[in-house]
Write a structure and sequence with these properties.
The structure is a homodimer. By secondary structure, chain A is of the alpha+beta class. Chain A has five helices and three strands, in the order αβββαααα. The longest helix of chain A is centred in the C-terminal third of the chain and has 21 residues. Chain A is globular and about 45 Å long. The complex binds FE2/S2 (inorganic) cluster.
């Protein structure tokens, strides 16, 4: 049902937690299943220097957020804004169709956190 | 959004894992969100002596399974079969309407594991 990469990131997720001194925080909800995702960013010199997430969502939400945060850590804001849930799902070697909606949470939360960062400037 | 009890069982779930020498195993899927739940039972003298679960489901699925397994551990098969998802949700001081479907997984998995136990006799 799930790829090895999904199970790896689900059982041992990266970048889980909060950043008390975050420069941007994004919180998004999933209309389909009622789950929420919160993303915390530290930004320095236009780059994402640290990133953490917390979710009440399922294994697919955890796995996609784990790999998505890995992918954008160290990137510029411009590159991070280009992250799509399609790229994240591909990096995980796919997800069952019923779980694609979970992967959207990570992409939306990153964008919401960057919007929050700009709003604070 | 979530009660203290839900957050307690979500952040520190009880009875997570597998039982390699289980007497009954139940696996059920959730048509609404595509998540799965697996329940393992040890049964001795008509009583549930041990119980563990594994799920790919969300925080509500984890919290309901954690408290449901607490509730039926040590019970007779007859009493365990009476467990309803309504009773589990009440024991958690409620769940948001969008997450009630997640609580059904635990009840169904217990019943599937008991059916598997009877099938093996
Ligand atoms: S959304 Fe699937 S178990 Fe909760």
């Amino acid at each position: 049902l799930y790829s090895d990469k999904v199970m790896e990131h689900f059982t041992n997720p990266h970048n889980v937690g909060e950043l008390p001194d975050a420069d941007g925080i994004g919180e998004v909800g999933n209309a389909k299943c009622g789950d929420i995702m919160k993303m915390y960013l530290k930004i320095d010199g236009g780059k994402i220097t640290d990133i953490k997430f917390k979710t009440f969502g399922c294994g697919a939400a955890i796995a996609t957020s784990s790999i998505a945060t890995d992918m954008i850590k160290g990137q510029t804001i411009e590159d991070a804004l280009k992250l799509t849930n399609k790229a994240v799902v591909e990096a995980l070697d796919g997800l069952p169709p019923a779980k694609i909606h979970c992967s959207v949470l990570a992409e939306q939360a990153v964008k919401a956190a960057l919007a929050d960062y700009y709003r604070r400037q």
